[in-house]
Design a protein that fits this description.
Transmembrane segments: 12-32
Structural class: alpha/beta
Keywords: Cell cycle, Cell division, Membrane, Transmembrane, Transmembrane helix
Organism: Hungatella hominis
Strand content: 25-35%
Strand order of the largest sheet: 7-8-9-10-11-12
Number of strands: 12
Distance between the termini: 111 Å
Protein name: Cell division protein FtsQ
């Protein structure tokens, strides 16, 4: 004969087990329905959603939390890391931390992207939009995650300064060319802009911004190396191609 105390205990245990199973079923059925993405420039929001939520289990709230906190993050080119912030059981935000890239060089059929310190952060067979191709730099063997081996490392400060100015003035260039003396030129379609040294670069790029509408449809070289912000008269010239 079963004692009343044992019978009650079994009933309680059964109820608790049923509640646990029910909660587990409910939790496992909750799915992420809204995913927002911030911090992304090189990838679209849809691309990142596709990379991080590739199958149906990735959208399960419990599994997504476990995967983000206890498993290694996906390795995504040009992305340093990311984190998934739960704003509700069905809504998350992907915060992307992209690698800092200021330019790339061509090397053995690949595009080697480097950061502000000249460190090669990524190798790719694809060209990224908005990242300038830098030519004229002399270097030897290139290795990923190592500095680009150039003689004058100060060139990277100049490249960073130049690319930031171009971005600020919303000027897109096809190529940044350096000569053996470290003088810079910009290639914009049929227009070459000779900037010369890094002196007064802010004024040179500002002047270029003003002159771009005038240069539309032309082919030639704009010499801004003689630009002098102290001069009231125009101190540069444009030479059309013959």
């Amino acid at each position: 004969m079963i004692r009343p105390e044992k019978s009650k205990r079994r009933i309680v245990i059964g109820i608790v087990a049923a509640v646990i199973v029910l909660l587990a079923v409910i939790l496992m059925s909750i799915r992420i329905t809204e995913i927002t993405v911030t911090g992304n420039k090189q990838y679209t929001a849809d691309e990142l959603r596709g990379l991080l939520f590739q199958d149906k289990w990735d959208r399960n709230t419990i599994y997504c939390f476990y995967k983000d906190h206890f498993k290694e993050h996906e390795q995504i080119p040009f992305v340093e890391d990311y984190k998934i912030v739960f704003q509700s059981p069905t809504r998350v935000e992907i915060i992307v931390y992209e690698k800092s890239v200021v330019g790339y060089v061509s090397y053995m059929g690949s595009y080697m992207y480097f950061d502000k310190d000249g460190i090669i952060v990524e190798s790719s067979s694809n060209k990224l939009p908005g990242i300038p191709w830098v030519t004229g730099l002399k270097f030897g063997h290139i290795a990923l995650h190592q500095p680009l081996p150039v003689e004058n490392t100060r060139i990277f400060d100049e490249i960073l300064n130049l690319t930031q100015l171009l971005s600020t003035h919303e000027i897109t260039v096809d190529r940044i060319q350096y000569d053996t003396h470290g003088n810079a030129s910009l290639i914009l379609g049929d227009i070459t802009v000779y900037l010369g040294s890094n002196d007064q670069m802010n004024g040179k790029i500002s002047e270029l911004k003003d002159q771009l509408p005038v240069l539309t449809g032309l082919a030639g070289t704009l010499y801004l190396d003689t630009y002098d912000e102290a001069e009231t008269a125009t101190s540069y010239r444009f030479v059309k191609n013959k």
